[in-house]
Amino acid sequence: MDFGITSLILDGSNGTKTYAGLSTEEAPSLIISNDYKKLVDRISFERIDSSPFGEIFTMYNDGLIYNWEALEEQWKFIYEKHYKLESKEMPLILTENHWNSKKNQVETCQLAFEKFEVPVFSMLNSQSCTSYGTGRATSLIIDLNDAFISVTPIVNGSIMTKGAIHNKFGGDFLNLHTLRYLQRKAGDGIDVEEQIASQGGNATTLPSVKAYRVNRFLKQFRRNIGSMSQYILPPVVEGLSSDYHLTAKDYLINGFVIKDINPLDQCQMVEPLMQPFSYTNAFHPDISLSQENTYGLSELVLNSLKKLETTQNVYQALLKGIVITGENSFIPGLEQRLINDLVKILSNYTIETYSNVNLDERNLATWNGALILSSMNSGNFDNIFISKKEYEEFGENAVLERFK
């Protein structure tokens, strides 16, 4: 195998969008949505909200692929429309989350080898890629995305599976609480979701299009307004201390005006990330959550470390290498709040966090890590790649053995 051959690297493990680039490129040349519009005769990934017609769907759930028809069309778009390349001519490298199922791995290989006939295929763990993409072989990767948050301890390049955990209390969960705030702000008799969905005069009656527009707005609104309290903030509180140094804000987007968003609201908008059970129980009693295993971010980190049952040296190495990444890692004050929470429990350890100040580079860490890992293993091909010939000879067993 000539490792001078260019590979296509696809990172869609965040669940929201896929970063596509060739191994000869310094960065992905295409960022494509993992949402798509289903029209009468085709699936479209371009300008999916440009018209009120056609339902909008997604390919991922909980950070895992579940819509194989749409994934096939996305790959076709990448190969044929963007790169104008034959899939038979180059290896394909895909990232996957550590909780991916064996069934998913087999189906992905089937798509790669049987439909696209790639000569060589690899699935790299996205959390390991992120670690290498930030220049670390040992780290505690905290991934904050819309569909999930995950905590993954990595030691000398290997995932410590006992401590690798995730839950679904990410950005989509925060949207629920952000919508509650906006509805309360608007008052009775005003349907906030309808107002958001019909912005720009491009009204629709399709539920999936409405949901797409509302979620997109809530995400953008929260990113501009949300700020993390440096201390535990109860669901019901009279006000914030002056220590928070926040001022009231106004928000304007596409003609939608929200005035006088006070500091307490700014913090409570994102506090459910740290206290999912308390906030849901207080404001959404109709949603049934069990307090057991309903961990906020800081609790998730502590639980991950507890499950490891390792040496103090390993604990210290992980706590000095906390990497915070993902689309919801940009919340002001989040990094310091996490440190504050951990120091209370782990006072005997040095705790250091890292998150790239360049937001674009932070989002590209996993793709960059996949590029690094694939080149590092170029002399050890059998470890991370499977060839079409192997797949045809050994089938599912080869997949399960290689990507275990």
UniProtKB/TrEMBL annotation:
<dbReference type="InterPro" id="IPR043129">
    <property type="entry name" value="ATPase_NBD"/>
</dbReference>
<dbReference type="Pfam" id="PF00022">
    <property type="entry name" value="Actin"/>
</dbReference>
<dbReference type="InterPro" id="IPR004000">
    <property type="entry name" value="Actin"/>
</dbReference>
<protein>
    <submittedName>
        <fullName>BA75_00989T0</fullName>
    </submittedName>
</protein>
<comment type="similarity">
    <text>Belongs to the actin family.</text>
</comment>
